[in-house]
Amino acid sequence: MNDILLDSPFALKNGLVIKNRFIKSATSEQLGDKRRNPGPALAKAYERWAEGGVGIAITGNIMIDRNALGEPKNVVLDDKSDLEGFRRWARNGTKNGTHLWAQLNHPGKQSPITLSRSPVAPSAIPLDMDMKGAFAKPKALTEKEIFELVNKFAQSARLAKESGFTGVQIHAAHGYLISQFHSSKHNQRTDKWGGSIENRMRFVHEVYKAIRKQVGVRFPVAVKLNSGDFISGGFTEEESMIVAKSLSQAGVDLIEISGGTYESQAMIDPSEAPMKASTRKREAYFLHYAEGVREMIDTPLAVTGGFRSAKGMKEAIQSGATDFVGLARPMMLYPDLPNIAGRDDKSTFDVKRPTTGFRKLDTAMMVDLAWWEEQIHLMGKGKEPNANFSAWIAVINNFFRMGASAFKPRRA
Q1: 142: Cβ–Cβ under 8 A, 6 or more apart, which residues?
Q2: Quick one: 10-353 is in which CATH superfamily?
Q3: How many helices, marked H, and strands, marked E, lie in the chain?
Q4: Residues in contact with 213: Cβ distance below 8 Å, sequence separation at least 6, in sequence order
Q5: Residues whose CB falls within 8 Å of the CB of residue 216, separated by 6 or more in sequence, listed in order
Q6: What digits encode the pLDDT tens for the residues 243-276?
Q7: For the chain, what is the mean pLDDT?
Q8: What SS3 state is found at 34?
Q9: What count of other Cβ atoms lies within 10 Å of the Cβ of residue 243?
Q10: 142: how many CB neighbours lie within 10 A of its CB?
């Protein structure tokens, strides 16, 4: 494996070739318009990432149901969407040989009460967190409603393909609906959709099968999967490996590994994710999990979270634990990262944690999301990211865009 470079191409099992090992992982953009269509700034930002040399760019949450939003300015892809905006996004985002994959999602109960007063979930169990008052208690889905949502995922995938996206990713991580089905804490159903892990993973398999039927065998369908929820009673690493193995056997084209939920935000704060010291040293938060799952499956893997140097990225690839490095925040600050890291093994990409100077205020104002979204918005205006952008200005801009919803818990 030691001869593999970051700019080495990779052939998926369906024969499609990705030009290098870099993935721009999904990031919250908040650039949908009032009708939930993608605004021009999304196309511009993804064009910038394509110019920067990334192999695959994965969009932020594209919601499959306009009555179930995770954030105020989410984009929705359904039969009411204006596909021209999606086509423009796809045209720009696939320049320079880049693949652009649409991340499809349903928030389940992780939808703020300002957006959904009656959210749905596998079971009628509320979120358990400090800001749980920001979310309404969910209604348990009926089986009929479950299959309606399966069909919505499939419809969105079909429309993504028609619009020019080159793949889709099913979001089954971070505590959203599919992740809720996987968790024995949040899924306490007694029918065929709950109980054993085989039953709890039924929903993601039904979604995958419905999507595959709509898009065909050569169109990439990926899954973003939690390695674990890092909460008591939640989805465990052992259960995640069972799901990963089953998805591999079903024919999923790529599995991106992540972790955490609204209740334990391991992707935002890695201190919440238990990991080996050796893993921390190697930068990737979830590499230890990838090493285990790699022994079980041959499906291409991507590990997202923690990479900050070309050396760390290259070592992860050459170890054989992962085929791709997923990058979120580094790509928001360094859109040329793939071009740079592919040429310079000594390159590093410092990522600071933005702050107003007051930690509690940072938490209340969601500075750690607002500041990073501001970098995307700069690229959406044809400007370059700004590492010195004021955290205060980011919060103010976020408030004017989103109102009180700017201070509700969110994540990618």
Answers
A1: none
A2: Aldolase class I (3.20.20.70)
A3: 15, 14
A4: 154
A5: none
A6: 999 999 999 999 999 887 776 654 444 444 444 4
A7: 91
A8: coil
A9: 23
A10: 11
Could you tell me if 293 and 244 are in contact, meaning their C-beta atoms sit under 8 angstroms apart? yes
Give percent above pLDDT 70 in the chain. 91
Instruction: State the Cα angle at 27 between 175 and 254, rounded to 5°.
Output: 70
Alpha-carbon distances, residue 396 vs 287, 365, 367, 390 (angstroms): 37, 9, 10, 10
What pLDDT, in 10s, does the model give residues 69-126? Answer: 999 999 999 999 999 999 999 999 999 999 999 999 999 999 999 998 899 999 999 9
**Residues 357-405: tens digit of each pLDDT:** 999 888 887 898 899 999 999 999 999 999 999 999 998 987 777 655 5
Write out the two tokens for 85. Answer: 């905006």
232 by Cβ neighbours in 10 Å (0-12 / 13-18 / 19+) ranks as exposed
Q: How far is CA 150 from the centre of its chain?
A: 19
Dist. CA 202–CA 196, nearest whole Å: 10
Number of Cβ within 10 Å of residue 279's Cβ equals 20
Of the candidates 375, 261, 253, 227, the one whose C-alpha atom is nearest the C-alpha of residue 324 is: 253
Q: Domain map of the chain by residue range?
A: 10-353
Q: Which residues, other chains included, contact 121 with Cβ-Cβ below 8 Å and sequence gap of 6+?
A: 108, 109, 138, 139, 140, 141, 177, 180, 186
Beta strands 139-140; 120-121: pairing state = parallel
Q: What SS3 state is found at 186? A: coil
Asked whether the CA dihedral 266, 271, 275, 281 is positive or negative, the reply is positive
8 A C-beta contact, residue 350 and residue 337:
no
∠ CA 88-94-100, nearest 5°, is 95
